[in-house]
Amino acid sequence: MTGQLHDHGVISRFCQYLPVTDATPVISLNEGSTPLIHSSRLSERAEAEVFVKYEGLNPTGSFKDRGMTVALSKALEQGAGTVICASTGNTSAAAAAYAARAGILCAVLLPAGKIASGKLVQAYLYGAKVIAVRGNFDDAMRLVRELGGLDGIAIVNSINPDRIEGQKTAAFEIIEELGDAPDLHILPVGNAGNITAYWKGYREFHELGRSTVLPRMMGFQAAGSAPIFHNRIIESPNTVATAIRIGNPASWEGANSAVAESRGAVGIVTDEDILAAQVWLAKSEGIFIEPASAASVAGLFQLGKTGARRIVLTVTGHGLKDPDAAMTTGDYRPLEAAADLTAIRRVLENA
Question: How is the chain split into domains, by residue range?
């Protein structure tokens, strides 16, 4: 397995559990090893030990980097000259960054006018060919499936099993840090690759004797974009949480299996719940996440006291991915004062 001398990414850490060999060129940005943060205030509310897996500190700001390092490495090994994806934003950023690292072309199909600016600018700056499709994510995904059949083009959405393999490493990290798996794991669900991947990782380490617990998997979808909860395709999904605005998840079957096998469930939270949870986590714990990530926090608030002893929440993307959404939740104009100490003190006293 060839790669950078100082690579400490997920392939380097977990190569024995991944579909790589010495012939695989490792394309890495030292992703993974993200913080697992104990949240005292969430713990108080849930009457359990609650930890936040902060995936927003991956290189492009979301959990997608874990799967993309494996997907790009395998694509390059198999001779691909172009990678392609449909995206609501985070996948496009990760695909474009890792394609740039690999020195190959990345093509991105986005639903026109429905991508957060923080994610769109990433795809452009990493050098991707960005195509805005006059339709939703599911239209873009349909086209990607068709294009992926052409020679030399590799699909790097989560329908590519290499993506799931990389993403499962987050479960490995949690087990290594806590010494075992949690009793309950809560995460947002959009295209459903992540809940599929975490469950795969937990099962693999359990089968290897690396853990004794298999957690219940709880996924939360936005109320206006909840195909798995309603068990039907949503033709026009709508939510402020753009990263999970998906009406026909590519990994639907994997999510159903994860929920059924773990005795978990999929629930829904409103946009109001999501934005309130985003603000709460920032102000209460100093963790700034994008709206889609806050679905897991809102989900925990909805569940209340679960009876679980130890809970992990995955928050999937950094808040700077979608700053415009955060600005809608309050009046964030700065307080003004004259440039003297008395004026500053007066402002602070009246704030």
Answer: 10-62+163-329, 64-160
